[in-house]
Amino acid sequence: MNFSELFQHFLATDQESPILASGYRKLDQLAIGGFKDELVVIGGRPTHGKTALMLNLILRFSYMQQQKGFVVMPMANEEYFARQMFSMITGREEEVSELPEDVALDGMTDLKDMLKNRLKVLHRPANLKEVLTMAKSWKASYVMLDDFFQVIDFLYGYKLYHESLKLVHSFAKETQIPVFIGLMSTSSVDKRGGDRMPELMDLFRSDILCQYAHKVIQLYRPMAYGIEWNMEGEPTDNLVNLDLQKNSIGKTGMLSFEIHPSGRWEERSI
After folding, report:
1. How far is it, in rounded angstroms, from Cα 229 to Cα 78?
2. Are 214 and 38 in contact (CB under 8 A)?
3. Per-residue pLDDT for the chain (270 aa), expressed as one digit of tens each?
4. Torsion angle defined by CA atoms of residues 246, 249, 253 and 256, in that order, rounded to the nearest 10 degrees
5. Domains defined along the chain, listed by start
6. Residue 218 near residue 245, CB atoms below 8 Å
């Protein structure tokens, strides 16, 4: 990128929406500062951390940075979502009854404030056009659609998939609001051969997906495959790898995170 392109990306004063930084230094470096007017795919096999990463991004965007978000999580009910966010806000894994009273009250107050003023969360599938319209009316700084197949009531049909991705892509560009979608891999090493590291081809119709997605992230947890130790002899039960495989603005690369008992993710050096 030349200086003019970098200026427009970072500093132009006529921008309607600022760049949304995750606060994860290495991830933001790969993303050239953060996320803006783009469709970001978070993919992976079940239990590899798609929803967990989304929850951590919500924590950083709407709790730490006070940004407004519109979230659809049809696979998580209201209490589960609140419990996970409460644990990450307090940074504690204990039950509420086991926490010091001031920690519990402060955490619940912060959670209530975030849910009331900066976060709209739907826990049921909804019409995609309606979701995007509501997000725009809410003046959200980001949109998070966990389990995209559930959101669009998808039965692996080419036409609906293509039209839905095109709609989200256009929305992100027109509104300058980044949209994150969770996408379960439909293929695996058992089907395609090779090693267990995720590949773009593991995602349903990756050829169509890459036409519209600006960034494609895939997650990989060694423990999910029964790999208990990494190459450095470290236990893998709390480790997850993030592979930024496609990036139209920035670089690609692999990052590693440690999962704390509270659910928070922390960047590691690889």
Report:
1. 35
2. yes
3. 565 665 565 555 455 567 899 999 999 999 988 999 999 999 999 889 999 999 999 999 999 999 999 999 988 899 999 999 999 999 999 888 899 999 999 999 999 999 999 999 999 877 899 999 999 999 999 999 998 888 777 666 788 899 999 999 999 999 999 999 999 988 766 665 556 788 999 999 999 999 999 999 999 998 888 888 888 888 889 999 999 999 998 899 999 999 999 999 999 976
4. -100
5. 18-268 (3.40.50.300)
6. yes
Alpha-carbon gap, residue 87 to 118, rounded angstroms: 18
Amino acid 208 reads I
Q: pTM to 2 decimals?
A: 0.90
Q: Is 51 helix (H, G, I), strand (E, B) or coil?
A: helix
Tokens of 187: 């293929």
Distance CA 139, CA 220 (A): 33
The neighbour count for residue 133, using CB atoms within 10 Å, is 12
Bridge partner residues of 39 (DSSP): 179
